[in-house]
Design goal:
11-stranded antiparallel β-sheet; mainly beta; Immunoglobulin-like; 4 helices
């Protein structure tokens, strides 16, 4: 399945921001008070910071002075509307961790709703959600301080990925902060944290979101071939469903179902569009296979196999190729209408003799095809009976009795 990788912008941001938001209460707050406190500061221009942090008051029992969270935004608008997201991994490159008291804080991913997509604010500390977007938090011991830490998003995480705009995540401590359970306070301003790089670190260790998705395969119909002549044919198709976007269309063709040759129609096509390509250099007397093809950039859809046959070698002059014939008999009147090439009513046949032509009046219907022998001069220019038939061809292409 195809994947796409997304990154936040480095500072100064133009589309998506990353950074940390925190609260600092010098006088100390209860654990619940610290979790619910309004943010006091932020940073969206540092190349690294703590994404989970908890710090106790130096002397006041069960009081806490600091907490941090981190925000990561990704512009995922280039995902196609027709794509079905099947999995996604948010990866943060660890830089350090520390636990002075043995609290072992973990970290998980949640959705965020910052005031701006390109700059953080202190108030973003409380613009949060408590639904985990990864089923398994990364434990303190599992946090890699010198490599990527991967969060596999669950169904809730996949659901918040935007195919038209910005996808927004936040890191929070799960086993204390989100759980509403206070760590065991200890004097001496004990603390614990996990830290990672931000986009400002550069292309090697910046946060990334890798999205795997499936696409609807384009649906295309192979239509019958037309304009079959000595060595040319027109292949035709219809794009029934473009899949996830406009498609490049064409045909595979050849003398077997392995095809072997391709032809591309210029431009792109959308659902409901038909397309046709003239093929030249074909071999007379040969059966050809062909199928239509549509490519939306992610998947290729194929039409069913069809065949056409290039039979008898046609005259080189298109006006002399008989491509249609209609026999009529109505109240004793018999007529034959021929179509030569593409033309049915706007041409005449050059005379083959400049002398005045003798009318040919058959005595019955059978004599049209079996005329009586004659010793008279052949006035058809030596073409015999078929020359006479051609002489009957008027400007409408009709033989008349």
């Amino acid at each position: 399945m195809p994947t796409m990788t997304f990154y936040p912008d480095a500072h100064p941001e133009s589309i998506s921001v990353d950074g940390e938001v925190d609260v600092f209460a010098a006088g100390g707050l209860t654990w619940a008070g610290l979790v619910a406190a309004a943010g006091t500061s932020f940073s969206d221009s540092s190349n690294s910071s703590r994404i989970v942090n908890m710090q106790g008051h130096n002397t006041d029992t069960d009081k806490w002075i600091a907490m941090q969270r981190a925000i990561f935004l990704f512009d995922t608008s280039t995902l196609l509307d027709g794509a079905t997201i099947t999995s996604a991994i948010l990866s943060l490159y660890g830089i350090s961790k520390q636990d002075a008291q043995g609290w072992l804080p973990d970290v998980n991913i949640y959705s965020a709703d910052p005031v701006s997509n390109i700059a953080l604010a202190a108030s973003d500390f409380q613009r949060i959600d408590s639904t985990p977007l990864c089923d398994t938090p990364i434990t303190y011991n599992g946090w890699n301080p010198s490599g990527y830490n991967d969060f596999a998003l669950n169904a809730a995480g996949l659901a918040i990925i935007s195919k038209t705009g910005i996808t927004k995540f936040m890191t929070r401590n799960a086993n204390y902060e989100v759980a509403g359970s206070s760590p065991t306070w200890a004097s001496g301003q004990k603390y614990a944290f996990l830290a990672c790089y931000f986009a400002e670190r550069g292309s090697i260790r910046r946060p990334k979101l890798v999205v795997t998705f499936d696409t609807a395969i384009p649906q295309v119909t192979t239509n019958p071939a037309t304009n079959l002549f000595t060595s040319t044919a027109a292949l035709n198709g219809t794009l029934d469903d473009e899949g996830v976007g406009a498609c490049a269309c064409g045909f595979d063709y050849g003398t077997t179902i392995a095809y072997g040759s391709t032809a591309e129609s210029p431009g792109t096509y959308n659902t409901g569009n038909s397309f046709s390509i003239g093929i030249t250099g074909l071999t007379p007397g040969t059966l050809y296979h062909f199928r239509a093809r549509a490519n939306d950039g992610f998947d290729i859809g194929y039409g069913s196999d069809r065949t056409f046959f290039l039979g008898t070698v046609y005259p080189s002059n298109v006006l002399t190729r008989v491509t249609g014939i209609i026999h009529r008999y109505d109240r004793g009147v018999y007529s034959v209408e021929l179509t030569l090439g593409d033309v049915t009513s706007d041409f005449g046949v050059p005379e083959v003799d400049t002398e005045v032509k003798k009318s040919y009046e058959p005595k019955d219907e059978a004599s049209i095809f079996f005329p009586e022998p004659t010793t008279e001069k052949d006035e058809s220019g030596g073409l015999g009976f078929f020359g006479i038939l051609l002489q009957w061809l008027d400007i409408f292409g009709v033989f008349r009795r």
